[in-house]
Every structure is written in structure tokens, then in C-alpha cells.
What we know:
The complex is a heterodimer.
Chain A: E1 3-11, E2 14-19, E3 22-28, H1 30-39, E4 45-50, H2 55-66, E5 72-75, H3 81-89, E6 94-98, H4 102-116, E7 121-129, E8 135-139, E9 144-149, H5 150-158, E10 164-169, H6 181-190, E11 195-198, H7 204-212, E12 217-220, H8 222-225, E13 226-227, E14 232-233, H9 241-247
Parallel strand pairs in A: 1-4, 1-12, 4-5, 5-6, 6-7, 7-10, 10-11, 11-12
Antiparallel strand pairs in A: 1-2, 2-3, 7-8, 8-9, 13-14
Chain B: H1 28-39, H2 43-54, E1 65-68, H3 73-84, E2 89-95, H4 101-114, E3 118-122, H5 125-137, H6 145-162, E4 166-168, H7 173-176, H8 191-200, H9 213-222, E5 226-228, H10 239-250, H11 263-277, H12 282-292, H13 297-305, H14 312-326, H15 330-338, H16 351-378
Parallel strand pairs in B: 1-2, 1-4, 2-3, 4-5
Helix pairs in contact in B: 1-12, 3-10, 11-14
Amino acid sequence: MKRLAPVVLMKNELAFTTRSFTIDxxxxxxxxxxxxxxxxxxxxxxxxNLGDLNSEMMKILEAMSKGSYVPLHFAGGINSxxxxxxxxxxxxxxxxxxxxSLDLDLPKIQSIAERVGSTSTSASxxxxxxxxxxxxxxxxxxxxxxxxxxxxxVNALNGSGCGELKVNSVDRDxxxxxxxxxxxxxxxxxxxxxxxxxxxxxxxxxxxxxWSLGIDCVATGTMLSTYGPHKAALAHYPLxxxxxLRWR
Amino acid sequence: xxxxxxxxxxxxxxxxxxxxxxxxCNYCTPAILRxxxxxxxxxxxxxxxVSSIDRKESNPHGYNCVVGVSGGVDSxxxxxxxxxxxxxxxxxxxxxxxxxxQGSHNIYKLLSTLGVPxxxxxxxxxxxxxxxxxxxxxxxxxxELLYDNALQEVCYSVARQYGIKTILGGNNSLSEGVEVGxxxxxxxxxxxxxxxxxxxxxxxxxxxxxxxxYRYLVYRYVWGxxxxxxxxxxxxxxxxxxLAELQRxxxxxxxxNKHFENVFTxxxxxxxxxxxxxxxxxxxxxxxQIVRGEITRSEAEALLRLDIYPSRALRRQDIESxxxxxxxxxxxxxxxLAQEKGSHRTYMHDPTVNYLIPLYSKAKSVIRQLTSRQSExxx
Lengths: 248, 379
């Protein structure tokens, strides 16, 4: 089934939207946001934390998973297989792991996939376009481009045991300019893994188009958490007919 | 305390001051006058006020009024009406971290169908949580004072930010004509009281939107922003009519009770007020409907016998999520509910809004009565 997943991005225990991977609009309190998306019957909720996975964070994650009836995906600050097992133990379906360097992150992804299973392991890559028009990976922690090409990264991940691949377009992130179609279709060619795309999605038409390209899940923060020209914080999600009936 | 009930409406002496006579009480009698006043308004009164709004359009976005939307029936219907009257509203929403899914969905459906842009002010959650705990620690009755007050400040400050000169308020005499008991709430303009309560728990009030009478004077007379309760010019407005229209045109989802679009308000009206303070705010809402002639007194009494919460499961769920979000245990909450009631009066409060303004309006009504008697005699 094709999915549409809202992204709840946290920093210092508060939710934000981002623009080109920098903090943009303050959205409020993340637990409530997750609860709202869950009650609106979102297909899946992607929770991202910019920061360490400390005990405070674990408390928040526990509350989120208690308050949510839909599959949750967590990414951010997971450094070992035991961290991943803890988060899965809280009730999260998927663990997101960012690939920033091949020799450091690849073994980590492999060990986590072995521990919690492939279907719970989702690798993610953040991609920018360089001056020559080639896609290369972006290291959000240092804020620099890395030397790894898109194809090289995807090939490495194909054999890493992860069960899903998430692609973030850094240039389009939060811009509302529409998705990077070229990037999405290139990645689709390079891999047979289920694909998640994030970056620049503005309307339902964009989502439908990405689905038609063979993307399995479209993740978006800005489109589902804000509304209108003033980027006003307002969580919303296309309601299924069944939900509509249940509430009426 | 012996319960004394009004014969016309369902207010009783849990609301103080409470005076009854053979016809009604001091809550429904003025409400009848107010409703009569609104029902006497003609279409031209409405058009006059709308045209006065139109002329004040001066900002780059082309908006000519601000409408605060909570997701509730009154404000949603007001927004739809404003658009139909040819106004260009900017919707303003204050997010205090307790929005319900239905509330968000309703606002989104309404705004996207009408094509009205939104500005949301999201309160800083960390500060917000501490402020809320300060109010609970003070054991005062009006915990919602914090938001009701902040909402006015937010509406005015957004109007100021966009250069808009008119705010349309959803307050109205038709659906909330019978006021809530004087002792159930505190004066909503009393910023001094809020600051004092926050200070007691050493919570900073800097950067928190706090409204006061003095802020009002500045917004009104320096920046020239006027607040109009537009629904008081629309005699056909009624809760049932509005709800039916919203459901038909905007797939609006009802909440089952007034102000239940917000999780904390739901909890406040459903648990804190009845269990700690012995107050049932539905009495005032239902009395308004009785006075309006929408329901009979016996129907209202039957409704009052139902639980305030639509279901036990929802109540359980709300208590859990409130404890987790505020970072307190359920034992703490039980302890809070059992504690002695506190009073707003023990904290510093603003003499202007609490004594001078009531005195002024009292004097005004006395003078009006005297002059009308005088003119009757002359006739």
C-alpha cells in the first residue's frame, strides 16, 4: 500500500519544521502532534530527534508510543544495536539510521538490522546536488557535503540488510517547491528496497505523482503540519472515508 | 448548603451572587434583555457595521479583519459568515499544546474550503507547562484565565503585526447570553493577577502573552484597533442552525459539548470544575439555550443528569495524557483535586478591572434607568 507519513521533527523536546535542514517554524509540543496525527489515522508517523537519545527523550518516546495507534518510525541519536532494541521495545516499528560515512555507519546499520530485524531498520540518506548536477550525500551534523556519490551509497545500502531506504532532498526540504522528481526516479532505478521520499512536497498531487513513480511512502513535515501562505502551524491529514464516518 | 434553583433556567446557587424571584434569576433576566436587543437588530445594522470595517483596509496583504478561530462552532460560523459578507479575514489560532485532532481537522477543513489564510501563534511549551502548573498549585478556580487572557493579547498583537484595524470576536449574547457564575471565573482582563500567580511559583512571565486593561487602552486608542462581536448583529444565529450549516458545507465534526475542541478545557470542565469546585458550566450554556427557546427546562435537566464526559474511556485517556504532558503523577492530580480551594483574591489583582469597571457599568445602568423613567414621565 502506498503511504503518506507526517514528519514530527524535534529539537530540545519541541517540534519544528525545517527548511534545507535548518530550523524554520516552531510547531509546539511533539507529543500532542503525534497524538493528533494518530487520531487522524495517518499511515505512519516519522519522529526525528536532533540531539542525543537521553533518558528524557526516552520518556517522551514512551509517551508517544502509548498515545499512538499507528506505526511509528524513530530516527535520531541511535548509536548502537542496544539503543535500537530499547526504542523498538517501547513500541516503535522502525528505526531510522542516517548514512553519513560508509566505513562508520554501514557496520552500525548491519548490526542493528541483525538485532531488530530488517523490516524494522530503515536507512536514510540526505542528498544535495553539486555544481556539476550530480547527487552527493550531505552530512547534516557538520553541515558539509561528503564525497560519497548517490549510486555508491545506494549500492552499499542494498547489501546492508536494511529493509527500507529513505531519501531526503536537502535542497527542496521545507521549500514547498515540489519534489525532486529526478532524484526520486534515479534512486528508484538503483534499488529494489521499499522507498521513502522526503523533501519539497506541497500538495496531494505531488504525493500522487511520487506514488506513481514507485515511491512507497512520501514523508513530509511542512505539508501536513502547516497551512497557508504564513506557514501557520496546523496539523492536518487527508481523512479516510472510514474515519470520517466513525467521527460523524 | 441548600440548593436554590431558578424557575426559568437551570442556574442554581452554586453561582454567586445568586438572587431569584418568582420569574427568574439575576443570570437569565439580563440575558433575556440582551437577546431581545440582538433580535431587534436589522439587516441594515449589520451592513452598516460591515461597511465601517471595509473602509479600514490598509495593510499590504489586503486583510480587513482578524477572526480568532478555536475550532468551536461560534468562531467557525463567524468566519464563514465574515467571508460571505465580503470581508477579507485573516484567521488567527492560538495553539496552547492541547488541540484535539477533531479541532485541528475542523479548522483545516473550514479554512481550506473558504480559502482563508491562517496565522498560528504557538505558545512556548516549556514555559506554558510551568505556567499551567503554577495555576494548579495556586488552587484557583479559573485555570483557563491563562488562555482566555492570552488569546485576546494574541488577536490584538497579530492585528497590530499585519496592520489590521478590526478584530471580530466570537463572543455573543445569543448562544452564551446567560453568563457563567461570577465566582466560577475571574476577570479575563486581569493580567496583574496572572503575573502574581506565576510569580508565586517563580515562573517568568516574560515573552508570555498577557493582556490587561492598559494593553487594551494602547491597542484601542494608540493603534486604533477595534473589537467587534459581530454575532451580536446577526439575529438568525443559533447554535443548532450554525452547527447544521457547518456540517453541511464544511464537513464539520461536532465535539459533543461547548469548548470540547481543546483537551485541557475538556478536562477542566469535566473533572477539575465539578470535582474540585462543584461547578457545572453546562448550567450556563444550557440556560442560554433555554432563554433562547431552543430547548425546554426539563430537557436541560435531563441533559444535566448525563456525565459531562461523552465517555468514560475518553475521560481516562485525557487524564493519562494530561499527567504525562504536565509531568505529574496521577496521585498528584488526585491530591490537587482534594486540596482546599484557593482564591484569586489572595493574589495581587488589578483594581481597575475588578472594582472600577464594574462600578462604572453599574453607574451607567442606574443612570440609564433614571433617564428612561424621566422620559416616560415626560411623555
